[in-house]
C-alpha cells in the first residue's frame, strides 16, 4: 500500500514513553527540518496556556507512519529528550 513520500512525525510523550494528550502531541516535521527543534518549538507553545502539557512532554519519538504509534507507549530506546 503506497502512502506517499516518507514524512516524519514527532510524537511528544513523557519519560516513560506514554503519550498522554492524544493528537495534540503529534507534530509533522518539515522536509528538511530538525525533529528536536520542531519538538521543542511545538512544546514551548503550550508553556503559558497549558502548563500541564508542557510539564508532561519531556521526550519525543520519531515515526514515519501513524500506524507505527504503539497503543501502550514507546520503549525507552525509541525516545529522545527534548533539549
- Rounded mean pLDDT score: 86
Strand order of the largest sheet: 2-1-3-4
- Helical segment count: 2
Write the H/E string, N to C: EEHHEE
Oligomer: single chain
Number of β-strand runs: 4
Return Rg in Å.
12 Å
What is the general shape? globular
Strand content: 15-25%
From the N-terminal CA to the C-terminal CA, the straight-line distance is 36 Å
Major beta sheet summary: 4 strands, antiparallel
- Whole-number tally of structural domains: 1
Relative helix content:
10-25%
Based on secondary structure, the structural category is: alpha+beta
Low-confidence stretches: none
Mind explaining what this structure looks like?
- By secondary structure, the chain is of the alpha+beta class.
- The chain has one domain (8-81).
- Helix content is 19%, strand content 20%.
- The chain is built from 2 helices and 4 strands, in the order ββααββ.
- The chain has helices at residues 35-44, 51-56, and strands at residues 8-13, 26-29, 59-63, 80-81.
- It is globular and about 35 Å long.
Secondary structure elements and their pairing?
Layout: E1 8-13, E2 26-29, H1 35-44, H2 51-56, E3 59-63, E4 80-81
Antiparallel strand pairs: 1-2, 1-3, 3-4
Write a brief caption for the model.
The chain is an alpha+beta fold.
